[in-house]
Specification:
Elements: E1 3-5, H1 7-20, E2 25-33, E3 37-45, E4 52-57, E5 60-65, H2 69-72, E6 75-82, E7 85-91, E8 95-98, E9 105-107
Parallel strand pairs: 1-6, 2-5
Antiparallel strand pairs: 2-3, 4-5, 6-7, 8-9
């Protein structure tokens, strides 16, 4: 099982945690949502739990609940800026389809 962070994503995680003043890393998960089935959920992680896996790169940590790993295995997390817009971008090899609005995805 693996989650890959780009250097840009790692830098963004670190800067957000520094701005927040505390935190261990970024928590990534999924929830049932939208017309395609699932949506990504992002939150701060103050500490990993027993049911979590931790992935790190470039000094940043990503925390994923083990129950979500089958949806996220092989994910590459990037952070991109385009004009005034900026967001984390997910490249997930498990996704078999996405809804038209881009808010949800399907997995097989």
């Amino acid at each position: 099982m693996s989650i890959v962070l780009t250097e840009t994503a790692a830098n963004r995680i670190q800067s957000q945690l520094a701005k927040r003043g505390k935190g261990y890393g970024l928590r990534i998960g999924v929830k049932k949502s939208g017309c395609s089935g699932y949506a990504y959920v992002l939150d701060y992680a103050d500490a990993p739990g027993e049911a979590d896996e931790v992935f790190d790169a470039y000094g940043a940590k990503v925390v994923v609940a083990k129950e979500h790993l089958s949806f996220l295995d092989g994910l590459t997390l990037d952070f991109q800026r385009d004009g005034l817009n900026e967001a984390f971008k997910f490249k997930n090899p498990n996704v078999t389809g996405e809804c038209g609005c881009g808010e949800s995805f399907a997995v097989s």
